[in-house]
Amino acid sequence: MNQVIKCAVAILIPLIVGGISGFFTTQSVQGWYTTVNKPWFNPPNWIFGPVWTTLYIMMGVAFFLIWKSEADIDLKKQAMLFYFVQLALNFCWSLIFFYAQQPGWAFLEIIAMGCMIFVTIIWFGKISSTAAWLLVPYISWVSFAAILNYSIWRLNV
What we know:
about 160 residues; mainly alpha; Ferritin; 7 helices; about 0% strand
């Protein structure tokens, strides 16, 4: 496969996952989420779209670097498996938090997601330090989101 096509596919995968989860959660963001108590550090809603789009692009570039690498195929397969598991958890978090409106369960899920992102960073680092570093803003944002998720859960129990 042509490297340009590989790069485009690698970037489109997380963008499509984010777009689909956004489709399912938009109504709750505009409805239920506006009614819940939020902590003082809750960012304005408009910030989430640009941040997530940027993070999804960075995730895609990181994945592309792994996909195109000349690393051992078994090492690549393991790293890619962790990547797709964390991406699935990313998708599920939005559904649990926004669509199901279950911040308590979403908090448990985002902890699992953060752990899988960390594992993905470790495995990507075995192949490409650049790919690993591209995921650092992502785990940082998810860590912030976990604190926000926990705060919203506790403020609304």
